[in-house]
Target: CHAT domain-containing protein
Amino acid sequence: MQSPVAPQPNHGLGTKFAIYVTTATIRSELSSSENQDGWSRLRLLLGENDAITLEKVGDGIWEGKGNSELTSEDGYLLLLDISDPNKPPEEVAYVNAGAEFEAQYVGPEKHQYRFDSEVIKTNPGSTLDISCAVSVMLPRGAQYPTEGRSQAAAMENNPLVHSLYSMMGDEAAACFEETRNITEADTAISAYTGALQYTPVDYPDIQSRHRNLGIVLLRRFECAGNFDDLKMALSAFRAATEVTPNTGSSPIGLIDLMKTYYYLGGALKALCRYTGTAEPAFEAVQVFKKAVEISDVLSHPSLPQQYGGLGDACFVCFELTRNVQHLERAVEALESGIKVTAQDDEATLAALHNTIGNPYSMLFQETGDLTYLNKSIEAYKTSVDLTPPSDAFLAPRRYGNLCLGLTIRYKRTGERQDIEDAVLAGRKAVYLTPVGHPDLPQWFNLLASALKDRRKHTQDIKDIDEAISLHRKAVELTSLDHSYHSFRNQDLGVSLLARFDRTGDLRDIEEAIATLQAAIDTCPSGHVYLPNIYDNLGSALSTRFRRTGELQFADRAIAAHRQSVILSSPSNSRLPSFYSNLGASLCMRFGKKNQREDLVQAIVAFRKAVEISPADHDGLPIWYGNLAEALASQSHNGGGLEDIEEALIVHQKIVEITRTGGRNLYSQHYSHGILLKERFRHTNDERDLEAALEAYQLALHNIPEGHSEFSGLHLSIAYAKMDRHQLTRGHEHLMDAVAHFELAAKSPVGNPLTRFEAARRWAGSLTNLDDLSAGMAAFRVCIELLPLAAGLDQTVERRHTTPVDISDLSREAAAYAFLAGNPKAAVEWLEESRCLVWGQLNNLRTSLDDLRQHDQVLAGRFSTVSGALEKAGTRKGPYDVLNNDGNMKTTISLQKEAVAHVELAAEYETLLKRIRAEPGFQRFLKTPSFDELIENVPTSGYVVIMNVEGSRCDAVCLSRSREPLHVPLTGLSYDKALELRNQLRGAVNSCGLRMRGAKVEKQEDGRALAPLGSKKGTKSTTGRRGGVIPGILNDLWTLVAKPVVNALDLVPSNSNRKRVWWCLTGPLAFLPIHAAAATPSTPELKESLSNFVVSSYIPTVASLFNRSSALTSSTTGTLDNRFMLVSQPEAPGLCAIPGVAREVESVTGTLDDRSVPRVVLTQKSATVLTTLSQIKSHNYLHFACHAYQDSTNPLNSGFFLNDGKLTLSDIFKLGKTDAELAYLSACQTSAGDERLSEEAVHLAAGMLAAGFRGVVGTMWSIRDQDAPEMARDFYEYLLEHSASGIDTSLAAHALDHAAQRLKEKVGESDSDFLAWLPYVHFGV
Model:
């Protein structure tokens, strides 16, 4: 398109000019005539000398030179040819304002313009003089200065350049209003900014230019969401009010001021909605009041719009203050606006009805009066009906509001048609909104909420999946500094929680907690929605607690629910829900801690929820149900029959107010069954039991397929069937119970702990039956479920805590397998269900060489995920490091780590499935089969597994050369093993030593620790000859060791003793089997296990993998034997260990005598970093220092050095593959934890897991004076008997030799026995 012809230098004007006259440009001297019929003459003043006069010749008809006609609209376009400044302007064309027209340049180009106008009649007189701006006619959409230098020069040299810019802005603004094309807004803002740059400060119309700029900035903010636009718009509107002259009674000036107030008020509303602060809303109310006052005085047709702005501003005030008076004022203003609106003004009526729906809706939420909600929805429907669907700006907003109103009513009444209509309206809002529009996230959110609620009726998982997807989009499209970001995070969290309730996927609940914490963090303080967010966070934390049983989540849930109650106003319609959820969380904690005060407070909260809930509230059945369950719990925990009777009365109210086919019908029946079952417990009335079973069956009939409560429901039915069996002794009832236990255990979804409980009861129910194969199948499911209770998605600390409650399962299952005559299954099950955490860590660090050769990409990803999972396992949880007043941002950060951890675990499982689908990798990282285990048993001896369980005790001996040898330990019982362990603990403590978790205080005697309460100088009562220890060792020989020796036909030997690797369970894991010996009448007749075998210990048979095959490699002398010794006699904050220096000096001399390379780190040189660096390059370690065992997080166990603690986690990260032997000359390095007998949570097992082939540790504290001799004798034997280099496989022999030497030197008191007994060898 060609640019306009350049102006002539002599006058600086272009060849064709346009005159655009609107009310915004009217600044004139008005005639004083009192003619009430309006003006009869319109004179357009073109500068000082030129003017065009138009005469009124008829109604709405004006005549000028050339007899052209113009309508009486006050906006006109007059095209003049004034190319010759010496001639009067030549009129080219007149057009009607608001119409499209075509105008011809000198060239053939045609240009279309459209102008909006409004009718105005003020100050009647015979003539109205209008000063007109003269501007170059530019092509539509042209932007200065991009149209060329000639045009730029023309504008820069034009004294009316500000008018040129203003005209360009008007044109672009009009196009933007029509098309919502951001480019048009950019053009308009650029033009208006240019206009203000060149407009004289005393220019009469400067305020309209500020206002016009503000309007376009505000509109662009509404479309693009850029907060800077809103701030600049506010500045422009404020500037407009500041430059508006004191017009007195001038109607034109008042109208301009009214317009400015209107737009300023709108910008202030937008500001407080964006920032969540209330002050702008208060100012907006005052501004709109001024606009209403002016409009009312002038009887201006915009009065309804002014009322609408005032009403909406009052509503915003309520949103941010929760003062109901603001709602009442909003309704009053909006009703006034509707009254003064002409019935044929559909656009204004639609806007006002849409706006009044909001305060009506909130009045319902504040008062619970359904009338308000119905009025709100009718208003929204009216607004939708009056709005053309083609209005891309307004139609989506009105459909969105209707969606919200219908969703709220559905939640109150449960009327299904409401939620269907809400989904339809939400889809309309999304469909009609252009991509990139700032309102789109809001419609995504509303539609998602409606879909989530519809799922309660349809039970269609697709609804909740779509809802979560929409919520994610809404959050992504909302800027972090927008107050709505908080609320949209909340909605996403609630939807994730809903899906978790359906599927049980831990990733959903972790992410839900994270998003709700983020919502609280970004929500403005005191905001009306903050209680809702706290309530939802409490629900998510409660759900997390029910999944894993971690008490910290229950505590946090209660705290969050309390906040929701505290922050709510008494009139909040959600307050009953808040009270009910608080009660539920208290009940939940009561079930864990059994503190009656929790249950009492829960019942109070439930009663309060029922008390303040409206009689027709859709949530009332939930409140009643919770109260009934709490009363039943009180009945079950010390209450009486009256509690359960009241609970049943309360439950009957649920039946009365719930429609047939209502939501969660299965839950209603399920709760009823629980209550009847509890009454049966009191009455033993079979009718109650039958009624309970009937209710359970109804629940089963109505529960949605794949629901997470499916396993729990079957478990409840099974327990009821067992009660019926106990009552009637009918075999069919027992078999029914077994069937339901099985269904609960095999459910693909549901709480893993529930499924595990069901599996154990299933297996336990079969122990009294003759069907051993069915029992074996049940225990197999138990074993398969066990890892789910301590999965990789949990921290190592949590994984070690979980087995405390289920640690006896492995022994119970193995005992059943022995009973069934299947020792191979017993071995496999013990391997699969013991030392879970160490096994998981080993799997994460497994060699991937074969997989890399097969698929390098898959191996690389699996390696990355495994490494990340190992690191994630040592993280701190969000509540491990914070108390209730902890920093929320830190909590959020830690919760995000938890989300990432769960996602990593899920990906790990997915990758495992992929790998196992590859040819040759079907058994990748699966628990070894019995045959695979046998292949790793060393040829030099036997592995002996001992299982100690309440029903029976057994041993099984494994070797490569024979079938497993099952040895029933008929003389041993679990109680006897427990008695021996307790006796040993007492002896150890009484001797001033520490054993396995006893609370002790430090003693000056180096590595020895004294029991709490003991006094210095008190002699041991067991120091006499013939104390407790010999009796313990005698029992271990008679009941444990001798049956194995006899079964293996072993004979005493001084030179050719067999190796035995003991794998012990239960209390035996804490007893010194290696020292088992008879107590004969004469020393010559003494029988001792050490006469037959050399003993070592292993946590599992699999721990010998890749170690036993290397037994002979050390004897070749090809290995580079590199020793590192650490001596730390005076670790900061701990008692001195004088013997440490002598010990390391003695070992160093022994190594030097045989020219073995070694490095010694002592005191200040023994720092954490230096020690780690040296471990990398040394394969033999000797630690002589204080050690620490952390049973809750074994990877945190370690050694105290000069500048801190060297942890197992630090050593693990080195990934050593050449580690040979670690000698841990420190306290209780193999003590373990009595609560976790099957997990081997001690340093020795940890060093094995870190890659060492052998470890020397101690079962309790050692005497500082004995340690140097033990270490010297050990290394002398090891070096002397190794054919070449160092033979690590002789470490057990060396330790046996050193212990025998020490035993010969000391006496036979208990304290003397305890000097050499604690030294044990682990590994090869």
Observations:
- The two ends are 90 Å apart (CA to CA).
- DSSP finds 47 helices and 27 strands in the chain.
- The longest helix spans residues 888-916.
